[in-house]
Amino acid sequence: MRKSLAIGAGATLATVLTHGLVYSGMTLDASKPLPPSTYQGFFEHALLAIWRFWSHAHGWEPTINHSQLSHVEEFGGFFGLATLLVCPLLGFFLFSLASRLRMSWRWWKPLAIAIVFTTPLQQVIRHPFLSAGLNEPLAEAARTVVVFALMVWSVSATHIPAWWRPESSPSQSGLAPALFHGGGRPAQE
């Protein structure tokens, strides 16, 4: 039960962060951001804070001219890739904390998956959602859920239950052993 709740919490966090950041990035009016108490306003203020930090890190003075951020082309590329990388990783981090997952050496697998699907390969996941008619923020959120699910699967946090595995099906060993010996495997003779 704990893993199911942890998977749900991690997927929700990753999805909401991705949708909020992509949507606010597409609809941002930098001269009049919404109040931070609203969904869109919260993410607009987060985006503006990241933009200010990014501008100062590059030694540029962040300025807003007629609702346009300074150095928006450079920042947009950085922000888009950072959103694609960080949101699934934050969701996975919440999942691993909530499920108390011991990963030891397996930490590289989810990191590699997140990095791989930040490259142009992410279009493989994103394109079917756009073709299905989802708008850009929803398609990115759906892509994040798929990447998150791959990350969870990569550390063997999910598995196929024993009753579903082919080697334990009654059809292979006959129905009688499954009924009389309690389980899908025949009794040892």
List keywords for this structure.
mainly alpha; 2 strands; 189 residues; two-stranded antiparallel ribbon
Write the layout of secondary structure elements.
Layout: H1 2-27, H2 39-57, E1 64-65, E2 68-69, H3 72-99, H4 108-116, H5 122-131, H6 136-154, H7 170-173, H8 175-180
Antiparallel strand pairs: 1-2
Which class of secondary structure composition applies to the elements? Answer: mainly alpha
Kindly state the number of beta strands.
2
| Portion in strands | under 5%
Following the backbone from N to C, one meets helices and strands in this order, namely: HHEEHHHHHH
Distance between the termini: 37 Å
Give the helix proportion (percent range): 55-70%
Looking across the biggest beta sheet, what order are the strands in? 1-2
The radius of gyration computed from the alpha-carbon positions, rounded to a whole number of angstroms, is: 23 Å
Q: What is the overall pLDDT average? A: 79
Describe the sheet with the most strands. Answer: 2 strands, antiparallel
Low-confidence stretches: 173-180
3D shape: elongated
